[in-house]
Amino acid sequence: MNVLITGGTGLVGSALISCHNKDVNCIPINSKNANLIDYNDSLNVISKIHEVTPISVIIHCAARVGGLYRNIREPVEMMNDNLLINTNILNIAHKLNINKVVCVLSTCIFPDKIEYPIKVEDLHNGPPHSSNEGYAYAKRLLEVQCRAFRKQYNRCYYCIVPTNIYGLNDNFNPEDSHVIPGLIYKAVNAKRDNTELIVTGTGEHLRQFIFSKDLANIIWWSITEYKDYDVPLVCCPENEISIYNVAKIITDILGVKGVKCTMAEGGQFKKTCLDTNTQLRELGYNKEFNWTPLDIGLESTITWYMSIHNNK
Ligand code: GFB
Fold it and tell me: What integer pLDDT is reported at residue 309 of this predicted model?
């Protein structure tokens, strides 16, 4: 099975490649191979690949992404680029008669003011948090675009909705990054400078985190086993943790002398979702996923980061 992975060298793409079955031939592409915002360039690159190795599935991980502060800074690019990338990938898949596309969304797209835990059917029942509107509406529309291709052309284009992902090959640039790579970047500097780790915000905000490899396992399973395409599959463990406690685990691993919080903007207080195993049970699947404990996932992410980055 030839599987094209957009965003193939990023956080999720590299995790998918690190744990695929032997009967799968992964074909990763990234922004160096094709500018997915440009339809003709994308069609040219993907159809050339398709001629040589006929693609049966696309796992669409490519997106303009970033943490809270990048989303607050760039709502226009977050919406425009993701709308163009997603529209191009689905239209090209359809044009090349590729019948299955898995699209990666994010739990920040769910309505902000809602009863917790969030259920999938709530997806379009209210506005997302103001801090990430651009990204959230573009990704919500991707769910609608997939539904349209299923309805009109009977395509198996479906969505999975992970909660905050972390792991190897993430973006550690503190200006754009998500919280875990941002804190690891700052913690390594704090260790060097013998200072405290500064958490941006009060540290009270709550998040559910999924290790990239655990997400990859769910995506590979879904390609052959998941049939409820009308129900976007939420990918998240049960546990929810405060940002302060995440910072504490990171400082304990690196031996940093302490954590200090600030009064900065913290975005959505929480986005608690029903965990994957409960969702699958409710849908009648006899499947239980195991989760990498957060301290173990953080340890291997930090070890990887230290191995490739020496902080100037
Ligand atoms: O991961 P994060 O940037 O995004 O921030 P969201 C999570 C929480 O960590 C926020 C706090 O409450 C931040 O205030 N935080 C503390 C930090 N220190 C830091 C730091 O050094 N860097 C960062 N980035 N945060 C995003 C959405 O929301 O979730 C994206 O904006 C996407 O579109 C992503 O969906 C998964 O969880 O707030």
Answer: 77
Among residues 37, 36, 25, 30, the alpha carbon closest in space to that of 7 is found at 30
Q: Do 58 and 33 touch, CB atoms closer than 8 A?
A: no
Q: Is the CB of 208 under 6 A from ligand 1?
A: no
Structure tokens that stand for 118 in this block:
């969030």
pLDDT per residue as tens digits for the range 194-239 = 999 999 999 999 999 999 999 999 999 999 999 999 999 999 999 9
Distance 71 CA to ligand 1 centre (A): 9
Of 8, 1, 13, 17, nearest in space to 54 by CA: 1
The 8-class DSSP code of residue 211 comes to: E
Q: Mapped to the 3 state alphabet, what secondary structure does 147-177 carry?
A: HHHHHHHCCEEEEEEECEEECCCCCCCCCCC
Please, what is the Cα angle at 97 between 161 and 21, to 5 degrees?
55
Considering only CA atoms, which of 281, 278, 283 is closest in space to residue 230? Answer: 283
**Among 33, 34, 28, which Cα is nearest to 60's?**
28
Q: Nearest C-alpha to atom 35 of ligand 1 is from which residue?
A: 108
